Amino acid sequence: MAEMMYWEALQRAHDEEMARDPLVICMGEDIGVAGGTYKATKGLYEKYGPLRVMDTPISEGGYTGLGIGASFLGVRPIIEIMSVNFAWLAMDQMFNSAAKVRYMSGGQLTSPSVFRAAGGAAHQLGAQHSARMEKVFMGIAGLRVLTPSNPKQAYGMLKAAVRSDDPVFINEHELMYNMKGEVPDGEYFHPLEGSEVSRSGNDVTLLGYNISVHWCLKAAEILEKQYGISAEVIDLYSLAPLDRAGIRKSVCKTHRAVVAEEDEAPVGVGSEVIAIINEECFFDLDAAPVRVHSALVPQPYNHTLEKAAIPDHEDVVAAVLKMFGK
Amino acid sequence: MKLEDKKRVLREMVLHRRFEERCYQAYIERKIGGFLHLYPGQEACCNGVMEAARPGHDYVITGYRDHIHAIKCGSDPKAVMAELYGKETGCSKGRGGSMHIFDVAHRFMGGYALVGGPFPLAAGIAKGIQLKGGDEISICFLGDAANNQGVFHETLNMAALWKLPVLFVCENNQYGIGTSIDRSTAVLDQYKRVCGYGIESAQCDGQDIDVVYEHARTAVDYVRSGKGPYFLELMTYRYRGHSMSDSRGYRTREEEEAWKQRDPINILRDRLIAAGELSMDDFVAMEKETDAYIENEVIKFAEESPEPNVADLEKYVLA
Predict the structure, then answer these.
(1) A296 and chain B: CB distance < 8 Å anywhere?
(2) Is A281 helix (H, G, I), strand (E, B) or coil?
(3) From the list A52, A70, A101, which residue is nearest B110 (CB)?
(4) Cβ separation of A63 and B158 shorter than 8 Å?
(5) Are A66 and B131 in contact (CB < 8 Å)?
(6) How confident is the model at residue B243, as a pLDDT?
(7) Nearest CA of chain A to the CA of B262: how many Å?
(8) Starting from the edge strand earliest in sequence, which strands make up the sheet with B200-205, in order?
(9) Using the beta-carbon criterion (under 8 Å), do B125 and A69 form an inter-chain contact?
(10) Residue A313: its pLDDT value, please?
(11) Is A255 a known active-site residue?
């Protein structure tokens, strides 16, 4: 196991898949000569050339659609959206072309495309560069949604997504590209479906994904040390499909659930997970499940306001303590 | 076009016309649901271009007025009609419908129902050809109104930048749903709009198949030779409304009559008659044979085919 950064893990996955299969290409804004805004494609332009590492014009709808069209011929494009906020412009092609083509062609055509986007709120990027959009993607039939929470997942998910015949949207996080973690030395393919128990516990289940897994882990540590509450942390790395069985197993054991998301609450990951909890383990619950989420505001620029809008591990701790009447 | 080909194409065009007219009837009878966009009036466009290209070898993609493009690529009319009937034997297994005909075996890459959506897909197919090194080209048939979408311009830019082997065929039927082109579009000549991207283009009559064919040959040869994209604008007219819910209140009957005087099938028919290659009786017989084929085989197949199994509702969502 070597320790590497999240961006290095992504770069390695790109490189290995492109070396293996000449039909794997990558495309996006500034990914080639400039090496990628978050360095996920660093060095690939020099190695594979402009036909396979395509610096695109700033035309998200156009180049996303172009990648999808190429995928109809068996090309496996890794399409980078520099910031997930720009994915709004590409959604027509992602949803109407990539996600639906298999169904509406009666299984004749499929789009083995991968969309990677830097998601999450970073620091003071304002309303149009701080959107959390997982919830928009997770309700689209025919699209897989992955949210890697560490370098090992970032590496293994990208490799698995490239090999998948389905279109896959990978929601990364702007604040996580420099996160370090262990990545297997040999090839590793992360499952496209399921969830992971990141920490075992008995009293309450904390459910997160991507950055909020880390809030949950930190909260679990505080809860155990300071309050004697044993929290189990579930990493919902696949948002589509969600792992009903994994959610049920943990919540039926702990009888309590808190869902942590960086997104705003309405029609979100928390709403969906809690609906599943109600459907799967309502009579096993000792308390009403709750959500920890962002304020429903266009992300403010001001640092203090921004901090107030976005939750963190302290909000998870507070939600659990309230649930326990402490 | 060779004489033999012209006779064959006339027969095909008659099939294309009668097939669509039979769809109209089936829609009235509620055998076909959803939205139905018919092709009569524009037959010389698809036929002229595809005669210059290689159907079943070159990749074709289009919008929702797609039945005839699929058939021209080699799709079995029975499978297309069965799709319109929503049957399991339909070319998209009843999951697509009129606007989503697919026949990948014949390289008909589908009909798409978001106006302009196929532009970047067509360029992507061309990118795939470029990567795989084949001699195919990608052909994108869309209407004039699609050119007012943003992806039109994004796609032209990328296709020219990367010299992609894609032929954009603009079937300019003068209307975007119920809005005439002069009320929606600042520049009426669509071929002029691509000049800003350095793309070769031409405009020609879309009703006379000989004219379409000659221009399409130039266009197809240009794209196949690796010089990059080409944009061909064909001036045409759809006889029916945009879809079945359209009573055509936005245009005059005089205008419709004037276009019907230049009917693509009649133009080809009369030319063959004048050349002594066909008689009016031959043509009437051709129509009758076509109608009998549609009724006895195409409609029969669609009628008698099974519905999809409800247990298969979620089949084809994911691989």
Answers:
(1) no
(2) helix
(3) A101
(4) yes
(5) no
(6) 85
(7) 36
(8) B108-111, B59-62, B138-143, B166-172, B230-235, B200-205
(9) yes
(10) 98
(11) no
In order along its 319 residues, chain B shows pLDDT tens digits of 999 999 999 999 999 999 999 999 999 999 999 999 999 999 999 999 999 999 999 999 999 999 999 999 999 999 999 999 999 999 999 999 999 999 999 999 999 999 999 999 999 999 999 999 999 999 999 999 999 999 999 999 999 999 999 999 999 999 999 999 999 999 999 999 999 999 999 999 999 999 999 999 999 999 999 999 999 999 999 999 888 878 899 999 999 999 999 999 999 999 999 999 999 999 999 999 999 999 999 999 999 999 999 999 999 999 9
Neighbours of B135 (CB within 10 A): 12
**Sheet strand arrangement including A204-208:** A196-199, A231-235, A204-208, A257-264, A290-294
**Contact residues for B262 (Cβ-Cβ < 8 A; gap 6+):** B207, B208
Q: Has domain A196-323 been given CATH number 3.30.70.100?
A: no
Cα(B176)–Cα(B115) distance, rounded to whole angstroms? 10
Cα separation, B196 vs B178, in Å, equals 28
- C-alpha distances (whole Å) from B38 to each of A194, A270, B27, B92 are 46, 46, 11, 18
**Would you say the CATH fold of A196-323 matches that of A2-183?**
yes
Q: Would you kindly state where each structural domain of chain A is located, as residue ranges?
A: 2-183, 196-323
Confidence of residue A240 (pLDDT cuts 50, 70, 90): very high
Please provide the distance, in angstroms rounded to a whole number, between the alpha carbons at the two ends of chain A. Answer: 41
pLDDT at site B244: 81
- By C-alpha distance, the chain A residue nearest B93 is A106
Which of B104, B117, B315 comes nearest A109 by C-beta?
A: B104
Would you say the ipTM is above 0.95?
yes
**Residue among B93, B124, B161 whose CB faces A107 most closely:** B93
**Residue from B3, B25, B8, B5 nearest B299 by CA:** B25
Give A253's contacts (C-beta < 8 A, 6+ positions apart): A202, A205, A232
Residue A105 and residue B102: Cβ atoms within 8 Å? yes
Distance of CA B305 to CAs A65, A107, A121, B62, B96, Å? 35, 19, 53, 27, 16
Q: Mapping DSSP to helix (H, G, I), strand (E, B) and coil, where does residue A295 land? A: coil
For residue A74, list chain B residues with Cβ-Cβ distance below 8 A.
128, 132
Q: How many CB pairs under 8 A join A and B?
A: 152
* Weakest mean pLDDT among A126-130, A155-159, A253-257, B56-60: A126-130
Sketch out chain B's domains with CATH numbers. 3-303 (3.40.50.970)
* Active-site residue, A60 included: yes
Instruction: Given the residues A8, A17, A60, A80, select the one marked as catalytic.
Output: A60
Architecture of domain A2-183: 3-Layer(aba) Sandwich (3.40)
Q: Residues A77, A70: contact at Cβ < 8 Å? A: yes
Q: Mean per-residue pLDDT for A289-295?
A: 98
